[in-house]
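Justification of resources, computational component.

The compute hours requested in this renewal are based largely on the per-chain cost of generating structure records like the one below. Each record pairs the submitted sequence with a full structure-token output. That output is archived, and it is also reused by downstream analysis tasks.
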Amino acid sequence: MLAKRVVVCLDVADGRVVKGTNFVNLRDSGDPVELAKRYGDEGADEIVFLDITASHENRRTTIEMVAKAARQVFVPLTVGGGVRSVQDAGLLLRAGADKVCANSAAIRRSELISELAAEFGSQATVLAIDAKKSEHGWTVFLNGGRVPTEWGAVSWAAFGQAAGAGEILLTSMDTDGVRDGFDLDLVNAVCAVTTVPVIASGGAGSAQHFVDLFHGTEASAGLAASIFHERAVSISAVKRGLQDQNIVVRPA
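The structure output for this chain reads:
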């Protein structure tokens, strides 16, 4: 049985880690490189850097930040935000990222997914999906949750896998930062149409929420941000809670 992963997300804006609720009311949480090192040392299985204003501001992710983190962190790094081309992705991977994450640019030009997979492999190509509950399921948003699209999250996830994405980072905008638990319905709906690993994001408030996620869905990983930034719960406590419920995880 593959170990379930506990992933930490660093949302970066203007060179600082920020976190909000439902994608708004952002507050400062610290230096991205320092936090990445801390979480790597504390047992995170993976760290995700998301430059959350890069697409909105029509610029690339900050390469220097990625390079500094890669020199100090020895767990996989996934980096997204402003990845619009094979060239953008190559810069991040050469700077030390293990995987690149495409979101808004892939919606605008869906060939990007297959181009990234062809150049770097599906294992390095992550499709990020920001989804919000709507009348007919879940609507995909772009530009950091600012702009709704005509895509539904389930159909977009299936399309992304077929195009070559090797992993899906699925964020519920409805539960983001709320700490009442992951959106299990959304996760199950996406897992039902995909076979690649799904990272569930949005809503973690306790170790029990990770237990609920892995008992209630086929998600491969659970991602959290604010509960770790604010030390509401530790990575080791989450992993102990999972182990107590016979869920296989790597030691913290």
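The CA atoms of residues 202 and 212 lie 13 Å apart. The chain has a mean pLDDT of 92.
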